[in-house]
Fold:
Amino acid sequence: MPNVYTGADGMIHMCEEVEDPEVEVPRSLVVSICINGFLGIGMMLIMLFCIGDVQDALTSPTGFPFIQIFQQALPNSTAFTTGLASLLLVLLVSAVVAVTAAASRVTWAFARDDGLPGSSYLKEASVPRSNST
Structure:
């Protein structure tokens, strides 16, 4: 099952702007994890029912079992298989960008609070320099 829990950190970044954060932030995190978990289980069940021959999926000539599963589910539609694989690729790239942005914010926050080795360098590197000539 893909990682359906990558969006849970969004509320943590907005903690300072939420009314009653000690109640609303944990509630939002739990609701987000539950919704994403149910959607992930649903996606996994759909893939399991559409998988067809498991050995064909594992020994796919494409090298990616999920593309073989799409082809098995839609035997006469290479275009639709390509579209589904492209959609999945866009979603994965978006998740990677979001996780990288979250990690950079946390790294900067730790550096700001002198919690990392080399914090002085990271703090200085994150402050925009003026272009006075």
